[in-house]
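tool=predict chain=A
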Amino acid sequence: MPPFHLALTAEKQASPTRLDVWLSANVSDLSRRRAQRLILSGSVTLNDRRARKSDLVNEGDLVELHTDPAPKNWTALPEPQLDFETVYVDADLLAVVKPPGVPTVPLSPNEPGTLAGAIASRFPECAAIGRSPGDSGLIHRLDAETSGLLVAAKNTETFGRLLDMQHNDQIEKRYAALVKPTGAELPPTIDFPLGPTDRGGRRMRRDPSGTPATTLVRLIEERGEFLLVGATIHRGLRHQIRAHLAHAGFPIVGDQLYGDATVKGSGRMFLHATSILMRHPNDPNRDLQLESPLPADLETFLNDLDRAES
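tool=predict ok
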């Protein structure tokens, strides 16, 4: 496998942008934290010189990523110190709660601090299982800011069955989101295809030629000027709930990519994977209902909203 190389020329922008910020906005699935790691490792050049994360990108600048080829088969870097909650485990699978701010899986063999690495440390049988190296048996992912439930397989047979179930809409995933209405009426169903809208595929948009996607929405309760809603998906595209709610006029509080990032005290995006409902992949007579309540930081934010309203 040859070394990875990506060259991007900066387009017109309102003002010069810090390199790490610019990279995270222009390269698909590259967070600012990951961009900083690449810059510090010497893997990024700006106009043919080694870059620094504080460098400013101007229109016409050439930004290049250079990384060594990864081995064909690799596993997530173990993270024994990264704590996470296990809500279910048996001989075939496990369900865990991803903390906020933690990437689900690594992009390269040497990336530390991922949930997949923590799973590999606690459940080494998961380490080599997945669609891609480093997945640690996980059948789906959450954005770094999003917290909540994820399912991982402990053997290849179960992994295959779980993927088939997911493809056939037999795994129901429920989320809680706090949204800020913009005047529209909350729809019970948001059903339109999504596709990437910007270079690098960082954002998703309504796209008639994109991938079909359906999100079921229900009102849980009103919280002042905000709504706490439940969102249900099955397969799930990248950013599906975030993009669907935003395009329907209900951006998620704290979502800097699709929503209103100015709400004081939110701290992070208010999106949490609360439930997964499915049959056990190896026992069709056994139903699994996996639950994760809202974490303390999101509950605190809701309580602060209530106090502000009173």
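The radius of gyration is 20 Å. Residues 4-67 form a domain with the Structural Genomics Hypothetical 15.5 Kd Protein In mrcA-pckA Intergenic Region; Chain A fold (CATH 3.10.290.10).
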